[in-house]
Amino acid sequence: GPKVLQIPSHQIIDMGQMVTLNCDPVSNHLYFYWYKQILGQQMEFLVNFYNGKVMEKSKLFKDQFSVERPDGSYFTLKIQPTALEDSAVYFCASSLGDPNYAEQFFGPGTRLTVL
Amino acid sequence: GEQVEQRPPHLSVREGDSAVITCTYTDPNSYYFFWYKQEPGASLQLLMKVFSSTEINEGQGFTVLLNKKDKRLSLNLTAAHPGDSAAYFCAVSGVNNRIFFGDGTQLVVKP
Question: Is B89 on the interface with A (CB under 8 A)?
C-alpha cells in the first residue's frame, strides 16, 4: 500500500540545537500532519498543513516549531531551539482528502532524543 | 474541544478469548471514527474507519460498534491470537479538521 517515509529514523542532539525532521508523504496526497508521541503515551496532534499553509495547530506546536514543504519536496518539521521535553517519537502522516474523513497514512516515526 | 477517553489502558487475554476496548467521546458533532493498531517499534496501521451512520462494522476477526447516543465506540476482537498483541488507538474527528486520539490500550494475547 501507500507508504510514508521518514528520515532519519533516529536523531540525537544537544539541547538548544536545531533539528529538521523529514517526511516523504504519499505522492498524490494533499494534506500533511505531524504528531508527537512520548514513550508509552498517546499520539498527540501537532499540526496539519495544506496548500502551503498551516491549517490548524495544537498548543504543543510551540513557537520554536515550524513546518514547510518547499516545491513538493519533503514535508519538514523544524525545531529551533530544541528543549529536553521535545524528546519523543515524531510521526508524519498524509492523506488524500479532508482530515475529517480521509484515511491518514503514517510514517514509521523519527525518534528524537534531546540531551 | 473534543475529549476522547479510552479504556482499559492495559488488557491481557488468553488466545481464543475476546478482547474489548472502548472509547467515549464528548463532541456530539463527531462523525468519523477510526481504530489504529501500533505494533512495537512500528507506525500506526488503520484497522477500520467508521462513518457515523453505521453502527456495526465487521472486519477480519473484529467488530467495531458505534453507539452515538452514548458517544461510545468499541473494538471487539472476537478470538484473539498472539499476533493481535499491540497497542490500539481509537481516533475521532468532526468539523474542526482535527483528529483526536485516545490514550491507547496495550493488548497482550497469551498463547
Answer: yes
For residue A84, which phi and psi values (nearest 5 degrees)? -55, -40
Amino acid identity for residue A30 in this structure: L
Amino acid at A73: S
Q: B37, B44, B88, B92: which to substitute to probe chain A, counting the most A Cβ within 10 Å?
A: B44
- pLDDT exceeds 80 at position A72: no
Q: Does B5 touch chain A (CB under 8 A)?
A: no
Distance (Å, rounded) from C-alpha A60 to C-alpha A67?
Answer: 14
Cα separation of B35 and B49, whole Å? Answer: 7
Average pLDDT, 10 consecutive residues per value, chain B (111 residues): 90 96 91 88 85 75 90 93 94 76 93 92
**What is the spatial distance between Cα B85 and Cα B106, in angstroms, rounded to a whole number?**
8
Q: Find chain B residues with C-beta within 8 A of A106's C-beta.
A: 36, 43-45
Interface of A with B (CB under 8 A): 4, 41-45, 48, 55-56, 58, 91, 98-101, 103-109
